[in-house]
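Repro:
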Amino acid sequence: MGSQTGKVAIVTGASRGIGRAIAERLGALGATVVVNYAQNAEKAQEVVQAIQTLGGQSTAIQADIADVQQVRSLFEAAQDQFGDLDILVNNAATALFKPLPEITEAEFDRVFQLNTRGTFFALQEAARRIRDGGRIVNISTAGTTLGGAAGASVYLASKAAVEQFSMALAKELGSRQVTVNTILPGMTRTDGLIMPPQAIEQAVQATPLGRLGEPDDIARAVAFLISDEGGWITGQNIRVSGGL
């Protein structure tokens, strides 16, 4: 995928799962990686240590992406410590699966504050700070392309908005050679995948490649999009789902 040595990357929600795999992949490629986390400092430090063990440079910065002031503080702290930004991966998110009539106002607000509002203001900070030729990758879900799903209304709506942000920002930053894309993972094996075994098996059977995704499947796609080889791709929503 090419070296990212000398590049500065922020990965939100990077203490576990897909975010961790992305952060470690970017670190292995030589990028200086800011590992953002909301609560689990111990897990975030594990990611930092994994990157450092491979010879990379990394630090963990706590910020709840649902809080706009904390988003701004994250970018300020990263820039103060490492200089201008080259790569942003917006991964931090929360899921909610519940029938629409039962969703409370507080649940609705929490999903949109993190997944949509938080991502929007992270994109805004990146647009203001990122170097020319930089890369922005957002993480959505293949569920937005599958015609809806019972119980997933708020979650899918919050992610669909992110896809629209990406396509608009790609046009706004194109003159600076900054690419903006969104990856739409299929069902991926993480500790946040809490579903009945039967439902998981049905998803596997519906996937042409015949398995669940792994976090590193998503990380490899991110690595391609931030590389020179991915430099002609922008404004795209790309399913990384084994064909689901």
